[in-house]
Structures are given as structure tokens and as C-alpha cells.
Amino acid sequence: VNIPTAQDCENNQMREEAAKALETMAKDAKKEKLYILIKSAYRSYSDQQAVYDYYFTIYDPITAASLVAIPGSSEHQLGLSVDLTSQSVEDGQDFVFGDSDEYQWVIKHAHEYGFILRYPEDKTELTGTANEPWHFRYVGKEIATEIYENYWTLEEYILEHGFSYTL
Element (H or E) spanning 65, and its range? Predict the structure, then answer.
């Protein structure tokens, strides 16, 4: 993805359609003097295993399990998800992405580019994952807009529409 990355970002790759959408979103945010950066994008199985193992060394098992996906089940492995941050976080003006003006802009506009906030704060029981205000998933503009307008999660969208393919 051709946008700036956080200093500790190790991979900024995404599927082409998602990458182009994110580039457009970052470009449009920049017009408003908001600077979106990639913190993490695609992760291989082994990369996800390393993240998983690390979380279990710093948190108790219940907390760790709610914060990091089991290797093989992370959306990052699909090339459709991205963890975002901002230049204001990198510069120390904001503590976390969820506190930044960039976050407020992304929350309001992500669906216009095909992205959804994947794990909202008040939907943890439904998603099974703790709030991650930095984690966005590309689902395409039409689906993202429907999810945004109904304040759904991806799970709620699937409950409403089912799968359009055979599992």
C-alpha cells in the first residue's frame, strides 16, 4: 500500500483492491490535513503466531485470547484488514489512534472506501473480540455502507444476508 507507515510497521501489503481503496482514503484524509498511517497489514501464519505468542507473555490468558486471533484465523492473513494509526500518534500528540482526529474522520468515512470498523466497543459479545479502534476490514463499498448505515458488525451483516457462497 502506497501510504506512510508507522516506524514499527513490518508489512504494508494488502490485496490490490483493498490497497487502492486505502490509498484513496488516506489521500482524501490528507486533503483535510489528517495523516493516516499503516501500523500493520498482511500477516503470514508465522507472523501471526509470533504476535499470538507475544500477547500470551504480557497478558493473562483470558485477556490475551480476547486481544489476538489464533494463527490461521486472523483477518490480517486474508490481506483485507489493516491496523491504522496516525502521524499524531507517531509524533506523541495523541496516545492512541482512537484518540486522534484521524480516527474520528476514518470512522465517519471508511465505508465510502469499502472499509468497516471490525471490532466496535459495544459489540464485543457478538464479535468475540475486544474493541480494536485501529482495526479496519475491507468488504467493498456497498456492503460497508450497509453495515455503516445499520451500525452492524460483519457478523450482523451475515446474519441478515447469509453467505453468498458455499462453505
Answer: helix 61-67
